[in-house]
Amino acid sequence: MATIPQLIAQRLNLRERHVTNTIQLLENGATIPFVSRYRKEATGGMDEVQVAAVKEENERLEEIQHRREYILNAIEEQGKMTDELRRRLSDCWDATVLEDIYLPYKPKRKTRAEAARKLGLEPLADLLMLRPYEDPTKAALRFVTAEVTDAEAALQGARDIIAERVSEDEESRNTVRRTFARDAIITSSVVKAKAAEAEKYRDYFDHSEPLRRCSSHRLLAMRRGEAEGYLRVNIRPADEDACVERLCRHYVRRGTPTASQVEMAVTDAYKRLLRPSIETEFAAAGKVAADEEAIRVFAGNLRQLLLAPPLGQKRIMGIDPGYRTGCKVVCLDAQGTLLHNETIYPHPPRGEYARSGFKLNHLAEQYKIEAVAIGNGTAGRETEELVRSLGWQGVQIFMVSEDGASVYSASKTAREEFPDYDVTVRGAVSIGRRLADPLAELVKIDPKSIGVGQYQHDVDQTALKRSLDLTVESCVNAVGVDLNTASRQLLTYVSGLGPALAQNIVDYRAEHGAFRSRSELLKVPRLGAKAYEQCAGFLRIRNGENALDNTAVHPERYALVRQMAADAGCDVQQLISSAEARRKIHLEDYCHGDIGMPTLTDIMQELGKPGRDPRGTAAEFSFDPRLHDLADLEPGMVVPGVVTNITNFGCFVDMGIKVKGLIHISQMADHYIKDPNEVVHLRQQLQVKVLDIDEARGRVALTLKGLGDGKDGL
C-alpha cells in the first residue's frame, strides 16, 4: 500500500524525501512562511504555494485514511469482510470510490427495497435477474401473502430491490458519472411568482449550458439565486434515454420474459435513485470547484492589495468625505498618530466652500502635511477638487479606497485604539493610515470586507477564511514587520505568534520600551524557543544593537555571517555596507550540514538590501476632471482609471464616478488571454476606452484594445 508522502510526491511532482521532511516540519509546529523561507534544504526549495499544497494534500489524505479505518471496522462488525474487499479498501485513496465500495454495507434508513426484503421478496428479485426465462407473473404468485396482496405487488417489491441493487452497484454509478461528466447540462429558470423581484438574475431566467463549461461566477450566481428562492437550478445529462439504455445493456436480457420487469427496475433506479444521487454529487463537486476558483481569485486580489506600495512615513491628512454630515478631517504624524480632527462642510446643503478651504490651508501649514488621503466614496471627487484647487506645493493627493473603513471604525480594535472618538474620526484615520501602509492598516479588517472579491458570502466560509488568513500571513511575513512599531493585529499574523503572543509583545514594549535586539523577544512572557525560532526572522529592528536584526537573516545564522565577515577581514556592519567585501565571500566554502547554497544565497541577498521594503512606493493619480457621474461618459472616450477588482472574467475600473466600468477579459488584449492577471493588477493606473453605456442597468463596458498597452504606473 502506498504511503501518504509517496502519494503526495506523485500527485504534486515532488521528491518523496522533501515531502516527508515538509510534513515533519509542519507537524512539529513550523509555519508555512518559516518552512518555505528558512528550510529550503529540507524541502528542496519549495515555495509557499507548494508547502501549502503539501499541507492541504496531507490533511485530505489523512481524512480518507481515517474514513477507511471506520469503514473497515464497520464491515468487520457486520461479519461481511472478505480478503478481496479488505484489499480493495486498503488500496483505495479516492473518497468517491471508497464510499461506492461501502454503499452496499452502509446502514440504511427505511427504504422501499428494505420494506420489500422484510416481506420476503428478495428471492423473487434474484429470480428476475438470474433466471430470465421464468414467467415473472407465475413466479410472483408464489410470494402472495396477506401482506403481499397480488402478483403485481410482489413484482413491485422485487423491482424495488433490483432498483436499489442497481443504484448501489459501482459500475452503474460510474456509468452515470461518466455520462454526467461528458454531457451534463446545467439549467436555471425563474420562479414565475418572483420574476419581478428577481431582476438582478435576469441573465439566468432561462439559462442552459454544458456543466463542464460553466464558469465559477455563473455557477455561483445561479446557486445564489436558487438559495434566495428566485431560480430553479438542475443538472441533467443531455440525453437521459441514452444513459438509461447504457444501464439496461448491463442488466437486461432482451427478448426474455423477465426483461420488461428488469428494465422497469433499472429505469426506476436511474430516475429515483441514481440521477438524484449523482446530480447531488456533481452539484456539490461543481460548487466546490466554483468556490475554489472564487477563493483563488479573492486571495489573489487580496495579496495584490496588501502588497500595494505604501507612501511610507509621511505626515498625512486623511479626509472621509460626505455631504450632509460634512467631511471628517484628521491630521496624522509620520508614525500614524492622530494629532487633530475636525469637520468641514464644503458641499451642499451647507456649501461652506471658501471657509473649508481656509481651514484645510491652516491645518496643512500647522501640521506640515506632506500628503492627503481622500476616501473614494460619496463626495470623494468633489472633495478632491477642493483640495487640488488649494494649489499646495509638494503635497501629494491620493484617492484611497474606503472599502471596509466603516467595518474597522465600528470594530473593537478601533474602539481600543480611539476610545474617545466616534466612528467618523476612526474612519478618517483608517483612510489616512491606508495610504501610509496598506498592509499594516488592512490587517485590522476582516478580509471579506475589503471589497476585492466576488460572491465571497456564497462560498464555503471555512475554506475562505483559511485561504484569506494564509494570504494575509504570507504577505505580512514576505514584507517583514517592524517589531517596535507594529500593532497587535499586524504582529498576530507573524509566523509563530498569534493573538496572545502578539498582545504580550505589545504589553512588554509598553512596559520596557523599544526592543534593542531580537533576542530580547525571549523575555516576553510565554514566548518560548519554538515561537522565537518561527517569528524572529520576520521581525525587524531598526537601529538596534545588531545590524542583522534589520534583515531577514535568521538569528540561527548570525554566527555564520560573523564568520563570513571575519574571513573577509571586516565586521558584520562593514559586510552589509560593502558590496566589495561581499564579493570576497565564496559561498561554497560554507556549505556543510544543513546549510546549503539556497540558504547561503538568501543570506547574501539580504545583506545587500537590509531593511528595504519590497513593495516600492505609492504613485499619485488623478481622475479625468470632466467626469463626475454616468451622464458625463460617452462611447469612444479615453479616460484614466484605477483597477479596483479582478475576477476570472475581467476587471472593474474606477473612473472617478459612482459606477465601476468592466473590462471583459476579451477586451484586454488583441490576443487570447486565459487570466486577467496576465494583463492587469489591482490598483493599477491605466487608460481605458468606453465601449458601451447601459444607463438603465448602471453598467459601463470598457476596452484596452487600440490603446497600446493601456498601462501607466506599473
Task: Pick out its properties.
5-stranded mixed barrel; alpha+beta; 714 residues; 29 helices
Task: Write up what this structure looks like.
- The protein has 714 residues and is of the alpha+beta class.
- Helices cover 47% and strands 12% of the residues.
- The chain is built from 29 helices and 16 strands.
- Strands 6-5-4-7-8 form a 5-stranded mixed β-sheet, sandwiched between helices. A 5-stranded mixed β-barrel has the order 11-12-13-15-14.
- A hairpin with a 5-residue loop joins strand 5 and strand 6.
- Helix 8 (112-118) crosses helix 11 and helix 9 packs across helix 11.
- The longest helix is centred in the middle third of the chain and has 48 residues, at 259-306.
- It is globular, with a radius of gyration of 33 Å.
- Residues 710-714 have low confidence and may be disordered.
**Strand neighbour order, sheet with most strands:** 6-5-4-7-8
- C-alpha geometry: globular
Would you tell me the structural class of the helices and strands? alpha+beta
Major sheet details: 5 strands, mixed
Which value, in Å, is the CA radius of gyration? 33 Å
**Strand portion:** 5-15%
Helix % is 40-55%
The residue ranges in which pLDDT falls below 50 over 5 or more consecutive positions are 710-714
Residue-averaged pLDDT: 93
Q: How far is it from the N-terminal to the C-terminal residue, by CA?
A: 52 Å
DSSP strand count: 16
Question: How many DSSP helices?
Answer: 29
